[in-house]
């Protein structure tokens, strides 16, 4: 594994393992998506994820990571990220963000999606659409020859043009043998930064977190769950991508979303 400015560049063999790790993550998120409905407890989603980890003989990446106690981050409505699954029942009109990862053959997969619970409001659906579009726009900017902060700029400009706010407290990251590797990938242009040319072999987790209000968040007493200070709704989408000479490859692409078959 080569290093460039402290960033691990993955070879073809390593990207193949990362591709499988993220395929597993995507398949499990597809299963969770099928299970999200009014009345289900968020702890039930945790158990579903653990069952699928056992089926694939993989370890949940988040459980125990820096003391995080669960396999999934499950964040409802105004919760931005790092929410705990619990006995809380999802209700019609909620939105729920699930961030999930696995460890497969020593490499990490990582992806997040925000799901509607039953019928949601037009405003909630618009937030989901803006956040998902922001992820796609960020991925499109992640091409060899561009700069790292071209990704950040593309996401921030789009989100703010749509009248939403980018959460600045949390950022995307490199990923490989560690869950969080260099470089950090903010979804905004920092006041001070040194840009980094994007190179073939970089594997990045891009993850815009977007609110319908302002960008300020606070951490609940559990020391993990981040919520919007103004109690506005938040959404979160994340893909792990590999940079190739032919463009960015989405390793965590959803089978359900892209019509490549259903969960078996």
Furnish the topology, listing elements before pairings.
Elements lengths: L1 E3 L2 E3 L2 H24 L6 H15 L2 E2 L11 E5 L2 E3 L13 E10 L2 E10 L5 H20 L6 H14 L3 E2 L5 E3 L6 E5 L17 E4 L2 E3 L5 E3 L6 E3 L5 E3 L2 E6 L2 E4 L4 H4 L6
Antiparallel strand pairs: 1-2, 3-6, 4-6, 5-14, 6-7, 8-12, 9-10, 9-11, 11-16, 12-15, 13-14, 16-17
Helix pairs in contact: 1-2, 3-4
Describe this structure in words.
The chain is of the alpha+beta class and 264 residues long. It has a single domain (2-258), classed as Creatinase/methionine aminopeptidase superfamily (Creatine Amidinohydrolase, Alpha-Beta Complex), CATH 3.90.230. 29% of the residues lie in helices and 27% in strands. It has five helices and 17 strands. It has helices at residues 12-35, 42-56, 122-141, 148-161, 255-258, and strands spanning 2-4, 7-9, 59-60, 72-76, 79-81, 95-104, 107-116, 165-166, 172-174, 181-185, 203-206, 209-211, 217-219, 226-228, 234-236, 239-244, 247-250. A hairpin with a 6-residue loop joins β13 (217-219) and β14 (226-228). α1 packs antiparallel against α2 and α3 (122-141) runs antiparallel to α4 (148-161). It is globular, with a radius of gyration of 17 Å. Residues 259-264 have low confidence and may be disordered.
Which term fits the overall shape? globular
CATH class descriptor = Alpha Beta
Q: Over the alpha carbons, how many angstroms does the gyration radius reach?
A: 17 Å
Q: Sketch the major β-sheet.
A: 5 strands, antiparallel
CATH superfamily: Creatinase/methionine aminopeptidase superfamily
Q: Which consecutive residue ranges, at least 5 long each, have pLDDT under 50?
A: 259-264
Number of domains: 1
Query: How big a fraction of the residues is strand?
Result: 25-35%
H-E string: EEHHEEEEEHHEEEEEEEEEEH
Structural class: alpha+beta
Q: Helical segment tally?
A: 5
Strand order of the biggest β-sheet: 10-9-11-16-17
Terminal Cα separation, in Å?
34 Å
Q: Approximately how much helix is present in the residues?
A: 25-40%
> Averaged pLDDT, please?
95
């Amino acid at each position: 594994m080569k290093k460039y400015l402290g960033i691990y560049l993955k070879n073809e063999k390593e990207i193949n393992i990362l591709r499988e790790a993220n395929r597993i993550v995507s398949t499990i998120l597809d299963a969770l998506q099928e299970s999200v409905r009014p009345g289900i407890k968020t702890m039930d989603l945790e158990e579903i994820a653990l069952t699928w980890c056992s089926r694939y003989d993989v370890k949940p990446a988040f459980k125990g990571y820096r003391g995080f106690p669960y396999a999934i981050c499950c964040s409802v409505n105004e919760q931005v990220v790092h929410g705990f699954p619990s006995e809380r029942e999802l209700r019609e009109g909620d939105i729920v963000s699930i961030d999930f990862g696995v460890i497969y053959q020593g490499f990490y997969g990582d992806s997040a999606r925000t799901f509607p619970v039953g019928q949601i409001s037009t405003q909630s659906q618009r937030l989901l659409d803006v956040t998902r579009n922001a992820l796609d726009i960020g991925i499109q900017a992640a091409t060899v020859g561009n700069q790292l902060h071209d990704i950040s700029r593309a996401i921030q400009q789009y989100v703010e043009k749509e009248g939403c706010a980018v959460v600045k407290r949390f950022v995307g990251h490199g990923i490989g043998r560690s869950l969080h590797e260099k470089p950090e990938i903010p979804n905004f242009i920092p006041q001070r930064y040194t840009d980094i040319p994007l190179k073939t072999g970089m594997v990045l987790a891009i993850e815009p977190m977007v609110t319908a209000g302002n960008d300020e968040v606070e951490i609940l007493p559990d020391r993990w769950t981040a919520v919007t200070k103004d109690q506005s709704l938040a959404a979160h989408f994340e893909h792990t991508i590999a940079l190739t000479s032919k463009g960015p490859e989405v390793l965590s692409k959803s089978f359900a979303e892209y019509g490549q078959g259903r969960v078996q």
